[in-house]
């Protein structure tokens, strides 16, 4: 944005229909950064008067002429002799103060003689003022939900977006808004992806564009299950690479050059396509057929390679990943980024809490969580077993009972052996592998080993 | 926003999906046009909350009356801009008229602290019309700038914001000097049409600036 112009540039002393009116704050003067330096022009002088003579002007106001300048290395300007067509073609540049001084002079001479050009010149000068625009405001990200909800209240949709897809819809829109004004330097800003593997913090270097490519590749697992093209292979059919990390690596490897901003369009189109297709999976008339395949209630299984999630949970997982990586991107470019809306955050926490018993079992199987044989009680499936109460504070929080000894056991407050309290965002950072289980700020009470196992299991939910 | 579909095709499909009652289409419509709508409304009303309200009204209108848009008459984008402009100017006029009435000392319902409008004293009907016209021209100019052909916008951007002269502009864009002069002049000519519509509150030209 240009600020108020200086009125003391060498060429600004000219009277008349100069490139800038007296109260024109637009553009800048020729004498200040634009066109040849006065000093440079001076060397071309031939001994005639240093100060250009005041000229009669189409807007002659009769004001006193400027006082004679002290000797300065300014050169006389001899108006160029230019043809009418050339002069007319210069009007835009002239209005923007983007001509060489000789040309400016020639145009202004001409404006005194040619009414048509003078009219156009005035119009174009007025147009220049309109270029001064306020900085575009960042849209409040919560406005989207408010606007859409008020629309849907007034006319209920025949094909709604399922409740469980709303977090994904909102988070992808939020991330896209963040990317809106990114230039090349932001797209190529380094980002370190972080997650927990074998109880160790693991990292992988990439860029902002690389993160979007990662989201595109892994969202592709859902896209393919819904019958959309696979972004990794570019065609329809089963995903080439079975799990999120290998899909991402395959996508990154597929091009010799690292990903650029051009990855935004396919990512956004795919995320819009996913939201659209899950809506049809629920709302279409072939409800019976969809229900058979499990699409109708969001039960369609989505394979992540080594595990599966039903569609509705996969959509929550993708919303969670979108938020987490949007946070990585925002950190990389030093932008603020807020947590999701409370009810969306609640759904994400709920998914993690529901996945904990399986994660605990997997860790036990891998020998990472050695159960104390004296305290562990195997109970028949469906019977109440030892449980941990997970209390999540803050908006989107709540309480969950985590079955400790078997995913098949029923969590029960009567069998509560430990209690952990965490802030909602802190818990999500833990589940994203961004905070280590040892460092997570958690209030703890009860069986220390159970607590440790649950915190490590939460971190083990993270992946690339 | 991302565009791979040619606009007319995207516009037509969008209208069909909205008419069918697809909530996902409404989300996509918002994602493509929200910043245009909010920006124009804010330019006219100079108030964040008022711009939020207009944004809500515009999308509600499109959602409730998808058939009001005729793809044959021009792009959806300019139809949405026209609608926004109309609603925002309407709102500005209501607000300022109300301020005029309340600030009239003879008015029975004039409050003690008369509302003075966003830009100073409420003044007369004439002043109101001037204000509406100014807001209207500014909003039209914003729209023209955002929808003019990219080569023209790039040239204006360089000459005005980067303060390049037209020769430097030509070099930056990799075009001849004559072409740079042509683009600057044409860009300003387009922009100057923002002043054209005499009646304040009239929409930007349908079909965009070109």
UniProtKB/TrEMBL annotation, chain A:
Residues 1-70 are annotated as: Disordered. Keywords: Transcription, Transcription regulation. Residues 1-23 have a biased composition (Basic and acidic residues). Residues 88-118 form the Putative zinc-finger domain. This is Putative zinc-finger domain-containing protein.
From TrEMBL, chain B:
Signal peptide: none annotated. The keyword Transcription regulation applies. Keywords: Sigma factor, Transcription, Transcription regulation. GO terms for biological process: DNA-templated transcription initiation. The keyword Phosphoprotein does not apply. Residues 145-190 form the RNA polymerase sigma factor 70 region 4 type domain. GO terms for molecular function: DNA binding; sigma factor activity. Residues 99-127 are annotated as: Disordered. Residues 29-95 form the RNA polymerase sigma-70 region domain. Belongs to the sigma-70 factor family. ECF subfamily. PANTHER family: RNA POLYMERASE ECF-TYPE SIGMA FACTO, RNA POLYMERASE SIGMA FACTOR SIGZ. This is RNA polymerase sigma factor. It comes from Streptomyces lacrimifluminis.
């Amino acid at each position: 944005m240009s600020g108020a112009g200086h009125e003391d540039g060498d060429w600004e002393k000219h009277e008349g229909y100069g490139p800038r009116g007296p109260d024109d704050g637009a553009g800048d003067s020729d004498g200040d950064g634009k066109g040849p330096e006065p000093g440079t022009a001076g060397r071309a002088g031939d001994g005639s008067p240093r100060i250009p003579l005041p000229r009669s002007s189409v807007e002659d106001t009769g004001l006193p002429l400027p006082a004679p300048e002290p000797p300065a290395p300014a050169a006389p300007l001899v108006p160029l002799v230019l043809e009418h067509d050339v002069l007319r073609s210069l009007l835009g540049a002239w209005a923007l103060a983007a001509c060489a001084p000789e040309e400016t002079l020639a145009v202004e001479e001409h404006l005194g003689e040619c009414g048509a050009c003078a009219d156009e010149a005035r119009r174009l000068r007025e147009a220049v003022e309109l270029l001064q625009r306020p900085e575009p405001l960042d849209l409040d990200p919560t406005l989207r939900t408010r606007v859409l909800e008020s629309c849907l209240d007034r006319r209920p949709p025949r094909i709604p977006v399922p409740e469980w897809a709303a977090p994904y819809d909102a988070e992808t829109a939020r991330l896209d808004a963040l990317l809106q004004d990114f230039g090349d330097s932001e797209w190529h800003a380094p980002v370190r992806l972080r997650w927990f593997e074998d109880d160790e913090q693991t990292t992988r270097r990439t860029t902002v564009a690389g993160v979007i490519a990662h989201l595109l590749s892994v969202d592709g697992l859902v896209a393919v299950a819904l019958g959309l093209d696979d972004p990794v292979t570019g065609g329809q059919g089963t995903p080439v690479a079975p799990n999120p990390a290998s899909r991402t690596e395959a996508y990154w490897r597929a091009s010799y050059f690292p990903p650029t901003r051009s990855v935004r369009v396919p990512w956004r189109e795919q995320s819009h396509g996913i939201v659209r297709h899950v809506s049809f999976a629920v709302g279409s008339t072939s409800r019976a057929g969809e229900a058979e395949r499990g699409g109708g209630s969001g039960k369609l299984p989505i394979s992540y390679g080594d595990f599966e999630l039903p569609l509705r949970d996969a959509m929550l997982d993708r919303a969670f990943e979108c938020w987490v990586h949007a946070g990585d991107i925002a950190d990389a470019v030093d932008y603020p980024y807020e947590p999701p809306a409370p009810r969306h955050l609640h759904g994400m926490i709920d998914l993690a809490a529901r996945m904990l018993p399986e994660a605990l079992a997997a860790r036990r199987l891998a020998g990472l969580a050695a159960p104390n044989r004296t305290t562990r009680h195997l109970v028949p499936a469906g019977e109440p077993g030892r449980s941990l109460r997970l209390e999540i504070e803050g908006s989107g929080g709540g309480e969950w009972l985590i079955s400790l000894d078997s995913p098949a056991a029923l969590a029960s407050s009567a069998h509560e052996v430990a209690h952990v309290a965490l802030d909602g965002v802190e818990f999500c950072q833990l589940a994203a592998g961004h905070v280590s289980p040892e460092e997570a700020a958690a209030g703890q009470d009860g069986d220390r080993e159970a607590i440790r196992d649950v915190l490590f299991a939460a971190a083990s939910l993270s992946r690339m | 926003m991302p565009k791979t579909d040619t606009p007319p095709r995207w516009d037509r499909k969008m209208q069909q999906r909205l008419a069918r009652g697809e909530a996902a289409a409404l989300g996509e419509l918002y994602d493509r046009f929200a910043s245009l709508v909010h920006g124009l409304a804010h330019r006219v009303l100079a108030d964040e909350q008022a711009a939020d309200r207009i944004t809500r009204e515009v999308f509600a209108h499109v959602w409730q009356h998808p058939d009001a848009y005729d793809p044959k008459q021009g792009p959806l984008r300019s139809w949405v801009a026209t609608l926004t402009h109309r609603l925002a100017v309407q709102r500005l006029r209501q607000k300022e008229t109300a301020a005029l009435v309340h600030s009239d000392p003879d008015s029975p319902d004039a409050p003690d602290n008369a509302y003075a409008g966003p830009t100073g004293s409420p003044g007369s009907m004439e002043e109101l019309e001037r204000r509406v016209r100014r807001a209207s021209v500014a909003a039209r100019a914003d729209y023209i700038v955002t929808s003019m052909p990219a080569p023209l916008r790039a040239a204006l951007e360089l000459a005005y914001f980067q303060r390049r002269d037209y020769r430097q502009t030509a070099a930056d864009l990799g075009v001849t000097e004559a072409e740079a002069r042509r683009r600057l002049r044409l860009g300003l000519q387009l922009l100057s049409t923002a002043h054209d519509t005499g009646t304040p509150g009239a929409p930007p030209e349908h079909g965009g600036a070109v």
